[in-house]
Specification:
Elements: E1 2-7, H1 17-24, H2 27-30, E2 33-38, H3 45-51, E3 57-60, E4 73-81, E5 84-88, H4 90-97, E6 102-106, H5 112-127, E7 137-141, H6 146-151, E8 156-161, H7 162-172, E9 177-180, E10 191-197, H8 198-203, H9 205-224, H10 226-237, H11 243-253, H12 268-276, H13 284-289
Parallel strand pairs: 1-2, 1-3, 6-7, 6-8
Antiparallel strand pairs: 3-10, 4-10, 5-8, 5-9
């Protein structure tokens, strides 16, 4: 039995159901893989550990394929895709109308992603005939609990997912304007890509193949049978069943992607557009290297 540690992008949630399904159904163990899901301290921990050969796999948003060079990282395919972007409270919208500054909570701050959040808000303001200056958007690192941050007084939240925060806001009756990247003419990047390291892929190609096959089967099961996916989720987490989580699981299942295939064209337009805008820190060679075979 080979221990396989998988670095998550943040806390365990239904986006990770393909992994959880493989664990709970015993498919990984049948393939002699002891899979463990690792929640990071920092959003980028998994990517760094994989690139350095310290973890076998990690998942994270494709946006982080271009926000900084990560030599040694290899992209294996997308297993989940939703819509994502910025959520604004009514107070946040009003502040923008009045030309005032707004506080936006984000999992990370001080990164290239800050500029992208400002771009989304700026385009939305332009579409609604509102003046805008990028300095109006003040981004603060505040973790991934977006709804709690909005309820705590932030005017907005950045890097929100439609299947999670969008569902949660409707269920809790929290009034918010959801602005996805595609709403303002930008490519979608709200998804989870599976990554491994160049050295691990070269040394254990059969493990990479088996792992992605099982991940694909897990995604397919959840897509076809959301009720089974919900039972798997609650069994794995031990959480008490709730209407909110049922709704999140149902919405998430339809957004899972199978099969999981390394596809350099899936995110190429994202790289091209952000590169033209000066928002990519990765050149063409760096992007192509993410998909180089071992």
């Amino acid at each position: 039995m080979k221990q396989i540690d998988v670095g998550l992008e943040w806390f365990l949630n239904p986006d990770h159901l393909p992994f959880i399904t493989g664990i709970e159904k015993g498919w990984f163990r049948e393939a002699s893989l002891d899979v463990r899901l690792v929640e990071p301290t920092d959003h980028y921990d998994g990517l760094a550990a994989v690139a350095e050969g310290k973890l076998a796999f990690a998942c994270n948003e494709p946006l982080h394929m271009i926000d900084e060079p990560r030599p040694g990282l290899r992209a294996l395919g997308c297993f989940f895709e939703t819509e994502g972007g910025v959520m604004l409270t009514p107070d946040g919208v009003q502040a923008l109308r009045e030309g005032k500054a707004i506080r936006v909570a984000s999992p990370v701050a001080g990164e290239v992603t800050d500029d992208l959040a400002r771009e989304i808000v700026g385009r939305w303001c332009s579409e609604h005939n509102m003046g805008f200056d990028p300095s109006q958007v003040q981004i603060e690192a505040a973790g991934f609990e977006h709804l709690k941050n909005l309820q705590a007084g932030f005017h907005g939240a950045w890097l929100c997912f439609a299947n999670f925060e969008g569902v949660e806001a409707r269920h809790l009756g929290v009034e918010a304007t959801f602005i996805s990247s595609t709403d303002v003419g930008l490519p979608n990047f709200s998804a989870l890509e599976l990554f491994t390291g160049e050295s691990f892929q070269r040394e254990y190609p059969e493990v990479v193949s088996e792992f992605t096959r099982i991940l694909s089967e897990g995604a397919e099961l959840c897509r076809e049978d959301p009720e089974s996916a919900a039972r798997i989720w609650y069994r794995h987490t031990g959480d008490e069943r709730s209407e909110l989580m049922d709704a999140i699981v149902r919405d998430t299942c339809r957004r899972l992607v199978a099969p999981v295939i390394a596809d350099p064209e899936r995110w190429r337009e994202m790289w091209r557009q952000f590169d033209r805008m000066g928002l990519s820190q990765v050149d063409r060679a760096g992007f192509d290297a993410l998909y180089e075979p071992y």
